[in-house]
Specification:
The structure holds two protein chains of two kinds.
Chain A: H1 8-29, H2 37-63, E1 71-75, E2 77-80, H3 82-97, H4 104-123, H5 131-135, E3 139-144, E4 158-162, E5 171-177, E6 182-185
Parallel strand pairs in A: 4-6
Antiparallel strand pairs in A: 1-5, 2-3, 3-4, 5-6
Helix pairs in contact in A: 1-2, 1-3, 1-4
Chain B: E1 10-22, E2 25-30, H1 35-53, E3 60-61, E4 71-77, H2 84-91, E5 109-118, E6 123-129, H3 131-138, E7 141-145, E8 148-152, E9 165-167, E10 171-176, H4 177-183, H5 186-192, H6 194-204, H7 211-217, H8 221-231, H9 241-250, E11 255-258, E12 261-264, H10 269-276, E13 280-286, E14 289-294
Parallel strand pairs in B: 3-4
Antiparallel strand pairs in B: 1-2, 1-5, 4-10, 5-6, 6-9, 7-8, 9-10, 11-12, 13-14
Classes of the chains: A alpha+beta, B alpha+beta.
């Protein structure tokens, strides 16, 4: 059975939000002559603001009072994905921060490399990896339902954005849908 | 009979789901829905409960061998093996979510349901067979938009007036029996429970030779339904062998006693089950003209 996850554009913008700290660093660093500095900084500001504003809108829509409302998720097994942020830091931010932007060719090549990374994040549903969540005190967990003989209970894995540090066995929580695989715990 | 759910204290925690059936497999998917849709589904739940409460006879326990009106208020305990499909639907956690499922292969959608939570944390699942949706999706519809008429090419999903079933923590409440039997795959559930039912009856009535009945019931759904009903009877173990044999003789059921056991002739299995299920009667209102009846539906006076 093919799984056709929805919100394709939303997930893409959320991935861009994940990589947006790179644009902040580039804007501060400047283009080193590859492209006119003003244009480069404006582009970086645009690439930073647009997906993050979208992410904010997406979360507000998901959590609004007149929206669908939260759904109940049961946490059987859970896995702290905080280490992914470290991987993200060392494989994403640092290499791209130090990329050479001295010529037009190197700027284009860097953006193409970034596009590959963005595509991979989007394809692998890693759109939840975002430093901004961490800055606001949120953690990311991968949760699975408890083992059950119920044939309708699939082993669906969700990414849960929450302020908790752990879960009780078979704990039930209410969470808003940010995407088909990412949920934000309701207060 | 009360609902184990407070309809006046429904919280915002809810799920709108569809059931899909393809290649003999069933699965459920959560479809994200706007608050307005959830509100309408909650109204459907209230209308369903009001419709059930309006039945003069009140709530009657469902017996698989009885015949009922197409719309009646029946209930089955959620622990009953007959409703294992409903129990799994009610209890399945973390169903996958996908907004596109509603428009993909709509003919595969066989039901839709909403799962609600009240302020005490109690859950209610309201289920509706989606047969009307399939009919609508086959025909093009015309929608008036502003002053012009346009063709609607996308599949439409139309909500019904009420639900067929309500499932709370203890019971399945049935408003439409046909939908319950279809959604719950009742025939399969009853046929698969034949060995367990035979074992149960063997313990209660060890003097009956049940071998031929088990073979017959495994392939005949009506006989399997009688078995399920018989197992639910009170005082099953107190049935007297001689009285049972007398009733068989008086209603022309071919059964005889062989070495202390009641043996049923081949071909008489169904008739014997009718006697055991208390629905085969003999009457002689006219001299020398005995009549034998089989009750499709019976109710204890």
């Amino acid at each position: 059975m093919k799984s056709r996850e929805g919100l394709k554009i939303a997930r893409l913008l959320m991935v861009l939000s994940s990589v947006s700290p790179v644009f902040v660093l580039w804007a501060v660093r400047g283009s080193n002559g590859g492209v006119p500095n003003v244009c480069f900084v404006l582009l970086c500001v645009l690439l930073f603001l647009t997906p993050n504003l979208f992410l904010l809108c997406r979360i507000r829509i998901a959590t609004k009072k007149k929206g669908q409302g939260p759904r109940e998720l049961v946490v059987g097994q859970w896995d702290d994905r905080g280490d992914h942020l470290l991987v993200y830091l060392f494989t994403m931010l640092l290499p791209f921060y130090s990329a050479d932007l001295g010529t037009l060719r190197s700027v284009v090549a860097t953006f193409i490399a970034l596009a590959f990374v963005v595509f991979l994040f989007w394809h692998l549903n890693l759109h939840y990896m975002n430093l901004i969540f961490a800055m606001f005190g949120y953690r990311i967990f991968m949760i699975c339902p408890p083992n059950s003989d119920n044939p309708f209970q699939e082993k669906t894995r969700y990414s849960l954005i929450t302020r908790r540090v752990s879960f009780l066995p078979d704990q039930r929580i209410n969470a808003y849908r940010v995407s088909d695989t990412v949920y934000l715990e309701a207060k | 009979m009360k609902l184990n759910f407070n309809l006046d204290a429904i919280t915002k925690v809810s799920e709108f789901c569809i059931g899909r059936e393809g290649s003999g497999q069933r699965r459920f998917v959560v479809v994200p829905a706007d608050r307005a849709v959830i509100d309408e589904l909650e109204k459907m739940v209230r209308r369903t409960w009001d419709g059930m409460a309006a039945h003069e006879d009140g709530c009657v326990k469902y017996e698989p061998s009885n015949k009922y009106a197409s719309k009646a208020w029946l209930y089955v305990p959620l622990v009953d093996e007959m409703v294992v499909e409903m129990r799994n639907m009610h209890g399945a956690a973390n169903l996958p979510s996908n907004a596109k499922e509603l428009s993909t292969d709509p003919n595969e959608i066989y039901c839709y349901f909403v799962r609600l939570t009240d302020n005490q944390g109690q859950k209610l699942t309201a289920v509706r067979r989606a047969s009307y949706f399939k009919a609508v999706s086959k025909r093009p519809l015309i929608q008036v938009f502003d002053d012009s008429v346009v063709m609607v090419t996308n599949a439409l999903f139309k909500l019904d007036h009420d639900f067929d079933l309500l499932i709370d923590s203890e019971h399945v409440h049935i408003l439409r029996l046909g939908a319950f039997e279809s959604i719950g795959r009742l025939s399969e559930a009853i046929l698969s429970s034949v060995p367990d039912n035979i074992s149960f009856i063997k313990e209660q009535l060890p003097f009956i030779e049940l071998g031929s009945i088990e073979s017959y019931a495994r392939t005949h759904i009506r006989a399997a339904r009688y078995l399920a009903s018989i197992c639910a009877q009170e005082n099953l173990g107190r049935i007297d062998m001689q009285r049972l044999l007398n009733q068989c003789v008086s209603t022309e059921v071919k059964a005889r006693e062989v070495e202390g056991k009641l043996v049923i002739d081949v071909g008489a299995e169904m008739n014997f089950l009718q006697v055991l299920d208390r629905r085969r009667y003999g009457m002689e209102l006219v001299m020398d003209k005995p009549e034998i009846f089989v009750a499709g539906s019976r109710k204890k006076a």
